[in-house]
From TrEMBL:
Enzyme class: transferase
Annotated metabolic or biological route of this protein: Protein modification; protein ubiquitination
SMART domains from the UniProt entry: IBR, RING
Positions of region (Disordered): 1-41
GO BP term, pick one: protein ubiquitination
Signal peptide limits: none
Gene3D superfamilies on file: 1.20.120.1750, Zinc/RING finger domain, C3HC4 (zinc finger)
Source species of the chain: Drosophila pseudoobscura pseudoobscura
UniProt-listed PANTHER family: RBR FAMILY RING FINGER AND IBR DOMAIN-CONTAINING (PTHR11685)
Lineage summary: Eukaryota, Metazoa, Ecdysozoa, Arthropoda, Hexapoda
Family membership: Belongs to the RBR family. Ariadne subfamily.
UniProt name for this protein: RBR-type E3 ubiquitin transferase
Pfam family, one: zf-C3HC4
Keywords for the protein's UniProt record, in alphabetical order: Metal-binding, Repeat, Transferase, Ubl conjugation pathway, Zinc, Zinc-finger
């Protein structure tokens, strides 16, 4: 985003804090959000369309996409509102607001319930009513019989010592190195304190500009304090798309679908790609489980067994079938072949013939149940990943559609060829819904409503594969007019099936049909 520097002017407040630099860097440096490795999909940018509501009655949910300029203006609006009551210097008000996470009501409550000295001490500021903020004081060497001043960091005499309101003096070079380390090395903004030991007085914005005296360091600092403002505000969230410096402002902090001007649609509640029908908490559990289980589950199933007593996973690293559980609280001796207790085996160390004993049967049953739960997880995981991969590959379909539409415009109107673009968008929406429907289903307990859900899921999956095949194989037909009705019919049917599935889930949320388990692998028998 190339912003006009005049957009960040602070002349009306007389505070250099308004001079935000333009956001030309990656959003990874502008905001601290991260994307899940398991849930990263190629984003297909289609013509901008308002995010569809995720519930039946969402007229009260509104949101706005804000640029960096608008975010800074929003900061100053809050500062002005507080200063209309407290009449403090703007840079002091900014520090106090950050201390209270930009919560005006809590700030006012604490301010009027405390003495000024206590209030500013908690905010790590010098009381401005006792000592007016001069930002930075400059001092030179002592003369005559006065003691010579030295820097508190490098311990060298200097004629360019600078201090905050606390009076601790450091040379300009040490200040520059200290502030650069705090911003680039530690990622600190508003919470940078005086370098003196045990001094908690914070560096306000204007003091930072004077002491840092470096455009790159100041730019990083501005990014950090703006990011802190967004993260502290429950009604704001950065767009997680790469190279996007916009934020979303909502009227209610709920888990709803929002779409940035860059085209990226995501969940305001958690910042992940929009994941209906799965809730934020279910998705969080799922992504964590995928990170922990996916890479090792196949190997574990083929090369290990579980202790029949405590279920600790054990790898057989030798030829002997006499196994001893390594769990210090268990130390159970058992046979690798039949999983029965080793004690009655006698001398049958290498040729177990105890397959019919009741104890061995129970052990094998426990083993089978464990592996069945692993198979259940892999069932849902493989289908989740399959739809994610299909969505990535279908980015190529969109490129083909664009080329075909361009060729068709020579003989047809834009309205007549638009159906192709809309069909690709429907396909992508269905893929996303199917992806997260498997997350929803994995944690769902069995009941009659789950059967209906799985029927709807099956119908949507079937319809999605049909339109995907049509767009992939028939898009190259010389006369697209012949398949126009087919594409339109498939597209409309997919939309209906997707709507049926989502409406059923929403109705279940309203009527408490759904029961979930935190760990289906432990509490629920294996299922398809």
């Amino acid at each position: 985003m190339n912003a006009d520097p005049s957009d960040y002017s602070d002349e009306d407040h007389g505070d250099a804090d308004r001079s935000m630099h333009s956001c030309n860097s990656s959003p990874s440096s502008y905001s601290m959000h991260t994307d899940s490795d398991e849930d990263t999909c190629t984003e297909i940018l289609l013509p901008e369309r308002e995010a569809k509501p995720s519930g039946a009655d969402q007229d009260d949910f509104k949101y706005e996409v804000l640029s960096v300029t608008q975010i800074v203006q929003h900061q100053w609006q809050i500062i002005d509102e507080v200063n209309s009551v407290l009449s403090l210097p703007p840079q002091i008000t900014r520090c106090i607001l950050n201390q209270y996470k930009w919560n005006k009501e809590r700030l006012f409550e604490e301010y009027f319930d405390s003495s000024p000295e206590e209030f500013f001490q908690r905010a790590h500021l010098v009381n401005p009513f006792i000592k007016a903020p001069a930002h930075v004081s400059f001092e030179g060497n002592g003369v005559g019989g006065q003691e010579e001043d030295i820097c508190g960091i490098c311990l060298c005499p200097s004629d360019d010592l600078r201090s905050l309101g606390c009076g601790h003096k450091f040379c300009s070079d040490c200040w520059k190195q200290y502030l650069a380390q705090k911003t680039f090395g530690e990622g600190l903004g508003h919470s940078i304190a005086c370098p003196a030991e045990n001094c908690e007085i914070v560096v306000d914005y204007v003091s930072f500009l004077i002491l840092a005296d470096d455009r790159e360091v100041i730019g990083r600092y501005q990014q950090l304090i703006t990011n802190t403002f967004v993260e502290c505000n429950a009604l704001l969230r950065w767009c997680p798309a790469p190279s996007c410096c916009r934020a979303i402002q909502v009227n209610n902090p709920e888990a709803r679908a929002v779409r940035c001007k860059c085209g990226h649609q995501f969940c305001f509640g958690c910042g992940e790609n929009w994941h209906e029908p799965a809730s934020c908490s279910l998705l969080r559990q799922w992504l964590k489980k995928c990170r922990e289980d996916s890479e090792t589950s196949n190997w574990i199933a083929q090369n290990t067994k579980e202790c029949p007593k405590c279920n600790v996973t054990i790898e057989k690293d030798g030829g002997c079938n006499h196994m001893v559980c390594k769990n210090p609280n268990c130390r159970y001796d058992f046979c690798w072949v039949c999983l029965g207790s080793w004690e009655p085996h006698g001398s049958s160390w290498y040729s177990c013939n105890r397959f019919n004993e009741e104890e061995a049967k129970k052990a094998r049953l426990a083993q089978q149940q464990y592996r069945s739960t692993m198979a259940r997880y892999l069932h849902y995981y493989n289908r989740y990943m399959n739809h994610m991969q299909s969505r990535r590959l279908e980015h190529n379909i969109y490129a083909k559609v664009q080329a075909k539409m361009k060729a068709m415009r020579e003989t047809m109107t834009w309205f007549e060829v638009q159906f192709l673009e809309e069909a690709v968008e429907v396909l992508c929406q269905c893929r996303v819904t199917l992806m997260y429907s498997y997350v929803f289903a994995y944690y769902l307990r069995n009941n009659n409503q789950k059967i209906i859900f799985e029927d709807n899921q099956r119908d949507l999956e079937s319809a999605t594969e049909k339109i995907s095949e049509c767009l992939e194989r028939e898009i190259t037909a010389p006369n697209l007019q012949s398949i126009r009705l087919k594409v339109l019919d498939l597209s409309h049917y997919c939309e209906r099936r997707r709507s049926v599935l989502l409406c059923h889930v929403r109705e279940g949320n309203e009527k408490d049909w759904w029961e979930f388990t935190d760990d289906p692998a432990r509490t629920q028998p294996a299922g398809p």
